[in-house]
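INPUT
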Amino acid sequence: MKENKSKYAIMGILSLGPMSGYDIRKMFQKAVANFWNESYGQIYPLLKTLVDEGFAVKSIEKQMGKPDRHVYALTDRGREELRQWLVEPVESQIGRIEIALKLFFGQQISAPDNIRQVEHFRETQRLESEELKALEERVKEEKAGNPNLPYWLMTVNYGQHVTSALIQWCDETLLALNKMTAKTKKGIKKGNKKECSR
Amino acid sequence: MKENKSKYAIMGILSLGPMSGYDIRKMFQKAVANFWNESYGQIYPLLKTLVDEGFAVKSIEKQMGKPDRHVYALTDRGREELRQWLVEPVESQIGRIEIALKLFFGQQISAPDNIRQVEHFRETQRLESEELKALEERVKEEKAGNPNLPYWLMTVNYGQHVTSALIQWCDETLLALNKMTAKTKKGIKKGNKKECSR
DNA sequence: TAGAGCATGTAATAGGTTACATGATTAG
DNA sequence: CTAATCATGTAACCTATTACATGCTCTA
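OUTPUT
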């Protein structure tokens, strides 16, 4: 069980059509950037091993003025290997969530510092949410009729569900943090009712 | 910006009190397992560097029958270093979400295979959700009065928001996948109305 | 003329898991 | 008697990012 996920990610991209390493990178960045990424340092060496294993074939396209394109295409064996991975159930992966880790140690810093932290996180999620909305529109337009479209929209929807859940969590958490500061301040100075509405 | 997160994670655990590497591992497993993890292979070498950098001090507790405990405690400098990290805003990290990647390539496999995949994922989230509920109860009971408690509950809440959002996403996605198969089958045999309610 | 885009790749480094090595005690 | 728990640590290995090296063309 030492499966290399990057290998399958690259094979998956190649299943959409023959591509160069450069193209693959661009694909990662524009289509799946919100849940996956691969760098050249992974892509180029892995393309070589895919060829060695018989999962892909390479052909060279000469271009004028631009460097040659090394175009890779999945073989039948490669497609079969990919399918086998796709049907294998995903096992739960414990991601590293930095905001949660920092908040877990929140007692070490002041309440306003924690609030600042959560507010900043909320903003990143709001931006992400907007990007996903834009991506949804773009992909619906550009890929109308493409048989992959329904699946692609499901992955966008995944991100949308997560971001809105996190924004909600931020709001709840900010409320709780504000209550904590309010309690602390009450003993020092009362009548200090700052706006807590949201 | 080559910050080693594991280092800060370990310092954070040490901020809760002096501990051995063994204790630290246990802490990760029982308190933050749903969003962070560290293996011995990381913990022991990093504890050594923490001492070298002056962020922790080591003392040895002898025990009878059991191996010695190497107990580490944060120094003032260590606590300061930790605080500096805690207030630094988290930058968005693009996690690798395997279920989304597989679904992105869903066209390569059959609709029932995709359904099986999402149903399995849903089940992992349901289990996770139950574990979080149990963790919440346990921590509320065991850590009543502990000043860390409110922060710890916020991190549990994070997980709860995410899991319920994902369960909802699974239901939506399963509905869409079922519609897709229904459409495909309509042309072949009609009157075959399998239950799609949920 | 500077910088972005096209296009390939490698090397150094960092980050992380797993297996291994050791060995006593205790609970089932 | 077996397995788990206590307890430390290292070595081999895998995975991943970043910086580097090269060099042409097109646009601002």
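end of record. The two ends of chain A are 48 Å apart (CA to CA).
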